[in-house]
Amino acid sequence: MSEEIKKGLLGIVVDETTVSHVVPELSALTYRGYKVQDLCDKCEFEEVAYLVLHGELPSKKQLNKFIREERSNRKLSKTIIKNIQQMPKNAHPMDVVRTCVSLMSLEDKDTKDNSQKSNMQKALRIFAQTPTAVAAYFRTRKGKKIISPSKKLSFSENFFKMMFNKIPDKEIVRAFDISLILYAEHSFNVSTFTARTITSSLSDLHGAITGAIASLKGPLHGGANEAVMHMMKEIGKPEKAKSWIENALAKKKVIMGFGHRVYRTGDSRVPTMKHYMFKVAKLLNKNKYPKIYEILEREMLSKKNIHPNVDFPCGPTYYMMGIDIDFYTPIFVMSRITGWSAHIMEQHASNKLIRPLSKYKGEQVREVMLLNQR
Ligand code: CMC
Prior knowledge:
The protein is mostly helical. The protein has helices at about 35-40, 45-55, 60-70, 80-85, 95-105, 115-140, 155-165, 170-185, 190-200, 205-215, 225-235, 240-250, 270-285, 290-305, 310-320, 330-350, and strands spanning about 20-25, 30, 35. The longest helix is centred in the middle third of the chain and has 26 residues, at about 115-140.
């Protein structure tokens, strides 16, 4: 058997999927065959969430039912709320969200049931409850009273209401909705592959999503949207951006929010998110970070020919919306639950245990010496 190593599974095709498709040469991403740009132009986030989970865009009737079910499942149990209130105030919100999904598994009557029907219902419950957990920790950490979810508001409006007790301008809500659409799904990325790997042992959906959240947290994956904002804050002002990046590149630093394993000529989600980032900046009259954005983008392209990825515009967009930096990746979770769940169901429908091989380079077989001989 060949022992050629493909570190990071670079270029390896491990399975088939119908959920999404990245066409690197076209810089295109499709969900169930629809270009994400078109979905952003024509759909609300809830429609896209339905599409990712169910495989087709919903009819009006299907959408209404989906929205009704999502809204009626938003509330967290008293136990989970109590747990959130007792969590350390300096915890990373990603760890809080991961723990909350794990706690949800203890309460869900169908945790062990891996049937398609049950998985779809569990996915919906996790999808509906996760924003409530994120917002509950956001407010608890600030010593503020938790705001219960509303059944009258859209997914994004309700999230703003639970976070800030007010809903911003509809253009801001739309920009947030767009970020959720763009974050919903992205083929066999690290967290999705983690979810599929966990599923492949016939483990359950809550466990696979819990593992996926841990995987998304890292700065080479979802954690990049937070790292981007820390970097922009460190740069501080547009006049410093050029020298900052020259210095960073001279030191061979990895610049957060740039590069991608699959896209080589640019992440297809970036132009859409960049457009909305500038829109938010204009509405709120905050131009500093868009200016830094432009300089970093220009310098990275001219010096390294490396394009930004979607986390690059998302970071400053959320910052301008007044969201604490360590909540950006949990927002990514709120949306990606749809993509993970679709992949988990796909894995269950055609499962094969994921179990790669490794090339051994440790000690050869040797004799165990008794303790008094070592
Ligand atoms: N800054 C500086 N150099 C870079 C960067 C970057 N952000 N990305 C890639 N390169 C260089 C890298 O140093 C390497 O150069 P060389 O061939 O001279 O060693 C070359 O480009 C190829 O990069 P790689 O690291 O081998 O590529 P990869 O496919 O293993 O890594 C990546 C992809 C996303 C991990 C990497 O580009 C990176 O670390 N980017 C920064 C973190 C980031 O923004 N992550 C978000 C990813 S996309 C959305 C998401 O998942 O949330």
